[in-house]
């Protein structure tokens, strides 16, 4: 994979710290706004990125780039992904993918027509611990309660209270805690249990944006409560509870550093299967394999998963608007 990066925010910095752990990944180019060019040049020098652009079109027309990593603010995802597909590039798009199922379907059709692959970058469903939890659900089944918590006091929250609004807190730029943090909980729940029958969102609103909130997802035989907050501090704890026991873990639902299985009858065991320290390494290893092998089956499965998540987000926003 010869990767071109569009964006230079925190997620790009995080990714670049682990890019050398991903085999067959070449950092070919980075494009940012004119204002962010000093940042892009510093990143290029530090991580050996060959080309630096202040114009996305230049990156998209670089024949050396075969895949584009879209890491721009949420409200720009659709347009940038569409441009990349039109240029014949494979696309890795940061979460949340796009705003609606219709947009996702349109981009998928365009990608299929051009013979390129698109995937959503979401860490947790590519982690080894996630796959292990999915395998171990049978040990505690039938499952009736899921309680996931991703609380992380935002480094930008104090500025937000003072009136300095970053994109993640800007409703005009598709910000908010639902799409920034609770989306990890949604991906995890949909990945483990599929689409719910009903979705309701109860946000804490400040200055027109949800700074925290509780999302409920109803299944025929279980209930899921998904908590996320950028305006609170705690050590988050998550539980999956069944008749035969429970699975639990502390910390970010985007990382899942380890997890505990507590059977109703038996010994408690703690597991750690993640192979890499950085939460983004496993997903990019998967993406390189999918794109280099043109594995359309796996890409299509991931697309269906992303569409289900987009549908949950849409239902959540609709429910909050109707309250």
UniProtKB/TrEMBL annotation:
Any idea what this protein is called? Oxidoreductase
Q: Where would one find coiled-coil regions in this protein?
A: none
GFO/IDH/MocA-like oxidoreductase domain mapped to chain residues: 147-247
Q: Which residues form the Gfo/Idh/MocA-like oxidoreductase N-terminal domain?
A: 2-118
PANTHER family in the record, alphabetically? PTHR43054, SCYLLO-INOSITOL 2-DEHYDROGENASE (NADP(+)) IOLU (PTHR43054:SF1)
Pfam families associated with the record = GFO_IDH_MocA (PF01408), GFO_IDH_MocA_C3 (PF22725)
